[in-house]
Amino acid sequence: MQLRRITSLSLTVLLLAATATAAIYADKPTNVSGKYEGVAKSDQMGEIPLTVEIKDEAGKLTGKIETPQGPAAITSGTYSDGKITLKFDAGGNEGTVTATVEGDKISGKWELSGMGGPLELKRAGAVAAKPATPSAPSAPAASAAGDPVSGEWDCSADAQGTAIPFTLKLKLEGDKVSGSSESAQGSLPISKGSYAGGKLSFALETPQGAITLTGLIKEGKIAGDFDFAGQMTGKWEGKKK
């Protein structure tokens, strides 16, 4: 009896830790390849407009920096745990950049030949991409037309006798399902979501592995099974708000 209680507690802690870890790193992209625009500031030169192209290959960075004074090649660099370090060649002089990444933004500092200052960059096109999101209100219309999936669900997973509450926010488009799972420990995006024949299935990707959930939807209720990377399995259920 005591062993079962300890095992249940350990598995529950593992599930909650995975959700919390994913929330912490949610704003840190796994790859920073792309084109960025912004400014480098210094007391000597004021604001210097920049265009930076970064190529990220498994955390090793190369690319180039375009400035009004001419291009500078990124000779080496690394990206790990939301932090960037770069070395660049500006006319035979080596410069450095150390920065952090949050979503589409890079902020930090630069140094070159005794000069330096703050650096702020934003992924090119990030602002233009946002207006596409207003199309999302189509989900309620689908729900009104007999969509049994789209909407918010109050759910609970049973980890060997310990209830773990969470909220699902789902959207059905054709047979594809997107959305998120939210709890007191953070938020996880849904991947590989699908719905067919009354059966819902999706995955939650965490640093400790994928949590796969399947369930049958009937009359505003859902019940099914989950599998956490083969380390823990159990039942879960939910009710549509």
Secondary structure class reads mainly beta
Give helix and strand order, one letter per element, not per position: HEEEEEEEEHHEEEEEEEE
User: Mind telling me the CATH superfamily name of the largest domain?
Assistant: Quinohemoprotein amine dehydrogenase alpha subunit, domain 2
The count of strands amounts to: 16
Overall geometry: elongated
CATH topology heading of the largest domain: Lipocalin
Query: Number of folding domains?
Result: 2
The CATH class of the largest domain, by name, is: Mainly Beta
Please give the oligomerization state of what you see. single chain
Task: Explain the overall architecture.
With 241 residues, the protein is mainly beta. The protein has 2 domains: 34-125, Beta Barrel (Lipocalin), CATH 2.40.128.120; 146-240, Quinohemoprotein amine dehydrogenase alpha subunit, domain 2 (Lipocalin), CATH 2.40.128. The chain contains 3 helices and 16 strands. The chain has helices spanning 2-24, 126-129, 138-144; strands spanning 34-42, 46-57, 60-67, 70-80, 83-90, 93-102, 105-112, 115-123, 151-159, 162-173, 176-183, 186-196, 199-206, 209-218, 221-228, 232-240. It has an 8-stranded antiparallel β-barrel. It has an 8-stranded antiparallel beta barrel with strand order 9-10-11-12-13-14-15-16. Strand 13 (199-206) and strand 14 form a beta hairpin. The model is unreliable at 1-14, 16-25 and 127-145 (pLDDT under 50).
